[in-house]
Amino acid sequence: MNWQRLKKRLTGAVLILVLVLGSGVILQPTAEAQIWRRGRNDRRDYERREQMSKGYRDGLDRGEEDARDRRRADPNNSEHYRHGNSSYREGFRRGYSEGYRRYRYRR
Question: Structural domain boundaries of the chain?
Answer without folding.
Answer: 49-107
